[in-house]
Specification:
Helix 1 (17-32) crosses helix 2 (48-54). Helix 5 links the parallel strand 5 (117-121) and strand 6 (137-140). The chain has ten helices and eight strands. The protein has one domain: Aldolase class I (TIM Barrel), CATH 3.20.20.70. By secondary structure, it is an alpha/beta fold. It has an eight-stranded parallel sheet with strand order 3-2-1-8-7-6-5-4. 46% of the residues are buried. It binds SN-glycerol-3-phosphate. SN-glycerol-3-phosphate is lined by residues 8, 94, 141, 146-147, 179-182, 200-204.
Length: 222
Amino acid sequence: MKPLIVVNFKTYSSAHGANAEMLAKFMAEADAACDSADFVAVVSAFDLASVKAAAPNLQVWTQHLDPVGFGSHTGWLHPETAIERGATGTIINHAEHKVSIDHVKNLLAQLPDGFPVCACAADLDEARALAALGPTMIAVEPPELIGGDISVTTADPEIVSGTANLVKSVNPDVRVLCGAGVKNGDDVAMAIQLGTEGVLLASGVTKANDPQGILADLVSKL
Ligand code: G3P
């Protein structure tokens, strides 16, 4: 499988509403122009349908889901509705939206087979516990490096390679990503060298003056 470049739009003003649609279009163009990696946009639940309509060929994931069904669950993010509105995957347990292990377990049990779930881990212990549940992928992101200028691949390469080794030893089918501070093609190339299968990033794209240039650069060393 090709490396994944997963861009989390978070709640950045540059990546919500009409801006989210524009950024997703840029990502769809970058995806179409690139044979060596796949791009994924991770958008607000509010923006799922409009982003999917703006960039129908792009993988569009949601930023969180709750393991609830139809019924009395005010304010929770219902998986079936997200899928109906265009979600083709989700992240879960992001450092900015932590959940319990049971939440992840119940969500995995509820989602359709093959629906991509990227569980985020802050450290090796969390990665080990999540790997045992068998999500599609695990993204290791040291919280203190999120939003910073130094990529995790430079600041803490050991946690990247350590997580890749650990996760594969627990469950070889789980893909491993890394994130926090990833900004350019060198960071992505280093992530792959350290044993991962892609990156999860945000500010490097959402705060860029030239997102199209950054998207092209991210895959330029693959
Ligand atoms: O979900 C990606 C994220 O937490 C990393 O953010 O801004 O460091 O790329 P950033």
